[in-house]
């Protein structure tokens, strides 16, 4: 840890040579072990904070300016404190990478009595589905409150970070990423009820398993529009079921047993989406039970079932991702694998026995290279603590 601290502070002082006292924070990325496309349907999800971070270094200045620097990409942005809340500044920031920390500064409602210099150094891959935008936003809010000695509940930080995504970046995301990042706990996944925002910790024995992400490198043009389509299909299904007499607030309020009746009510497409949502919510609870009882094989089988459902019923997979999951299933020591994230590309997440990690990584890379003529990005993840101050 000391080497990364030295690196982050050195980068900060390179950009802000007049800085004296620096505060340093670490904000992790996250994986979602199981529970896909149900966070906006009132379901339970099982994310975890991971050992890849955005490091945030902050120092005060007397210039009346808030400055942002990405040390990795050598990109900068700044805004005068007097213009922090102006519509022109918000419009300008909307097209910049620093929209997330800027939005955090605005929504914190802190009265800034001096300027601030922020530098961000990331070991978190961007575009790999580990939620770098939530990491930088949650981390900035946490840092601001810490510096100003303001006590605030983790749930409120998560909600503010979500609002930054909605109101400043224009992304109508759920609450899972923010809650996982602020509440992460080493060697524990988070069982999160997305309706109530209540959560509990589920121990994961990381001395025996690792979660490995393999990035397909595919960013499909349909990804955003198809995601919105799925949300609308679920909304239509919910409305139809309510009109049919179901006393529910979300699709995940339905049970597996309800599907027999539901099949006779919904059109085929809406039924397929609802089928996935209800069973996926059920699988989250099953997975939590199996992993706590060290039934790794049974837990892994639920990941495969999750992928099959995402592919067949929710229809968000692609042939390459389906093949990647199939490759994983043929490798000794792999308990389970599935598509992680919105779909139409992105990553697979595989639960792999510790002894098999090297063999898995090598085998997947070989098969991927043979099919795609390129080497995939592969990330081994351990489960770590959430956003925190480290210096």
Structural features, described:
This protein is α+β, with helices and mostly antiparallel strands and 391 residues long. It has a domain of 202 residues: Ribosomal Protein S5, domain 2 (2-Layer Sandwich). Helices cover 42% and strands 24% of the residues. Helix 5 crosses helix 6. The N and C termini lie close together (11 Å).
Q: What is the gist of this entry?
A:
With 391 residues, this protein is of the alpha+beta class. The chain is built from twelve helices and twelve strands.
What does the secondary structure layout of this molecule look like, with pairings?
Blueprint: H1 2-15, E1 23-34, E2 44-61, E3 65-70, E4 75-80, H2 87-93, H3 99-107, E5 115-122, H4 132-147, H5 154-169, H6 176-183, E6 188-193, E7 199-203, E8 209-219, H7 223-243, H8 259-263, H9 268-292, H10 296-312, H11 319-329, E9 334-340, E10 345-353, H12 357-372, E11 377-381, E12 388-389
Number of strands: 12
CATH architecture of the domain at 2-203: 2-Layer Sandwich
Shape: globular
Largest sheet: 8 strands, mixed
What is the string of helix and strand elements? HEEEEHHEHHHEEEHHHHHEEHEE
- The first-to-last residue Cα distance is 11 Å
Query: pLDDT under 50 segments (min length 5)?
Result: none
Give me the number of helical elements: 12
Class by helix and strand content? alpha+beta
Report the mean per-residue pLDDT as an integer.
94
Provide the β-strand percentage band: 15-25%
Query: What is the CATH C-level name of the domain at 2-203?
Result: Alpha Beta
In CATH, the topology of the domain at 2-203 is named Ribosomal Protein S5, domain 2
User: Cα-atom Rg, whole angstroms?
Assistant: 22 Å
- Helix content range: 40-55%
């Amino acid at each position: 840890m000391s080497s990364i601290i030295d690196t982050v502070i050195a980068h900060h002082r390179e950009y802000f040579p007049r800085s004296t006292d620096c505060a340093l924070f670490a904000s992790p990325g996250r994986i979602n072990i199981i529970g896909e496309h149900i966070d906006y349907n009132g379901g339970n999800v099982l994310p975890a904070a991971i050992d890849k971070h955005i490091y945030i270094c902050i120092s005060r200045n007397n210039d009346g300016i808030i400055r942002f620097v990405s040390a990795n990409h050598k990109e900068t942005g700044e805004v005068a404190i007097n213009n922090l809340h102006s519509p022109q500044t918000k419009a300008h920031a909307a097209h910049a990478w620093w929209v997330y920390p800027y939005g955090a500064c605005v929504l914190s409602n802190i009265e800034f009595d001096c300027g601030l210099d922020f530098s961000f150094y990331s070991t978190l891959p961007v575009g790999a589905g580990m939620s770098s935008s939530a990491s930088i936003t949650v981390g900035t809010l946490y840092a601001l409150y810490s510096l100003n000695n303001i006590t605030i509940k983790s749930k409120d930080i998560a909600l503010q970070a979500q609002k930054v995504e909605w109101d400043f970046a224009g992304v109508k995301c759920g609450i899972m990423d923010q809650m996982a990042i602020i509440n992460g706990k080493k060697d524990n996944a988070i069982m999160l009820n997305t309706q109530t925002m209540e959560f509990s910790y589920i121990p994961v024995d990381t001395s025996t398993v690792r979660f490995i992400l393999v990035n397909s490198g595919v960013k499909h043009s349909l990804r955003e529009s198809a995601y919105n389509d799925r949300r609308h299909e679920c909304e239509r299904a919910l409305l139809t079921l309510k009109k049919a007499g179901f006393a529910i607030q979300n699709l995940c309020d339905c049970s597996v047993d309800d599907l027999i009746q539901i099949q006779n009510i919904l059109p085929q497409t809406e039924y397929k989406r609802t089928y996935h949502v209800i069973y996926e919510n059920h699988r989250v609870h099953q997975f939590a039970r199996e992993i706590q009882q060290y039934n790794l094989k049974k837990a892994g089988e639920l990941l495969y079932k999750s992928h099959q459902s995402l592919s067949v019923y929710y229809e968000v997979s692609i042939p390459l991702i389906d093949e990647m999951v199939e490759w994983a299933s043929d490798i000794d020591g792999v308990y389970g694998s599935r598509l992680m994230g919105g779909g139409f590309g992105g990553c697979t997440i595989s639960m792999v026995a510790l002894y098999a990690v090297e063999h898995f990584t090598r085998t997947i890379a070989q098969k991927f290279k043979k099919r795609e003529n390129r080497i995939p990005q592969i990330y081994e993840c351990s489960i770590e603590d959430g956003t925190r101050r480290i210096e």
